[in-house]
Amino acid sequence: MPSHLSKQDATAGPVRRDPYEVLAISRNSTDQEIKSAYRKMALKYHPDKNSNDPEAADMFKEVTFSYNILSDPDKRRQYDSAGFEAVELESQELELDLSSLGAVNTMFAALFSKLGVPIKTTVSATVLEEALNGVVDIHPLPLGVPICRKVEKQCAHFYSVMITEEEARDGFVCRVQSSDKSKFKLLYFDQEESGGLSLALQEDSAKTGKVTSAGMYFLCFPVYRLDHTVNSIAAAKDADAAFFKKLDGFQPYEITELKAGTHVFAVYGDNFFKSASYSIEALCAAPFMEEKANLRAVEAEILAKRAEISKFETEYREVLAQFTEMSSRYAQEMQAIDEFLRQRNEIHASYTTAPPMKRSSNKRRNKGSIRETKEDAQVRDKKPSTRDRPKKKKWFNIRLKVDKRKPC
């Protein structure tokens, strides 16, 4: 089996091993086989169980890194064709176990999550190990009877559901929701021959309206789930990617139907600091025939739209590149035109025999004209004083000559 090494890996830094070799699986392994191998190895090298073992910590990171490549169909296909060079290493995010972070790191993780930074969390190794050893309390969950409870952070409540062959053929649904918008995970476990439970499916809660919810649908035909983290990470890198990558996380469930018998589900408290309030309900899909048909139809349309959007992205990127090029040329052409017009004005101004005007004379002339204007204004505004005014004779001091001889 050839090992894919990038140029960067070959020249500097630690050499990355083949993800298939890390997970000890073949290149033809199914998605379920990849997930099962990852769960077992992650539990084996988990920091909770190997707190003072740096080699185990490195192995845990390598196992998680390999799983992040092989669990994504696109990245797995890119790696199979061109190795690590085709995989965007910076986009590989690790799943965090909150129980092993510590108080300070948990506070930072909670802050980033509050700000909208996508943070993937994983189920505590303690919970997984207790389930694998078969030492968890399992409560019965009757069909059609909702149960409301509160689970502590990094803890889980286990439920068993019994279904008949007829109910298995009709389909089965398990849904959990929280009116408090608490974060949680809905888990499904396979029963091992040893009597223990191994994690098979995991669904993170997501906001849907005024609640957070998660569901698993076993309807005897392919049903899809939507990983919102993929779109969030793409949106953080590129605004346009928020649109074009929105359906990249739309992937089919690994299990499409359940057989008759007892099945175990769990609700895991995924909050950072507080418990999670929830309501869990298990249903037979027989009364929901119309909903099954509608779900199948709309998911087929979503798949068609995803293929259509993929083609549209190529066209959009080409047009956007042309628009960017044209915008750059527009600015350059505008600058060139302005420069030509400036040169033209200078040539027009050179057609004269008059000596060039000195700036200093202009300043003196301007200053003289300003001084004259001020003096004129002062003269206009100046009012004559009382001394300068001519004396006027008062009317009652005027001497009138009157001829007394003539009668008035």
TrEMBL record:
Residues 350-396 are annotated as: Disordered. One of its GO terms (cellular component) is membrane. Pfam families: DnaJ (PF00226). The keyword Chaperone applies. It is found in: Membrane. Keywords: Chaperone, Coiled coil, Membrane. This is J domain-containing protein. Residues 18-83 form the J domain. It comes from the Eukaryota. Coiled coil: none annotated. SMART domains: DnaJ. SUPFAM superfamilies: Chaperone J-domain. Residues 369-388 have a biased composition (Basic and acidic residues).
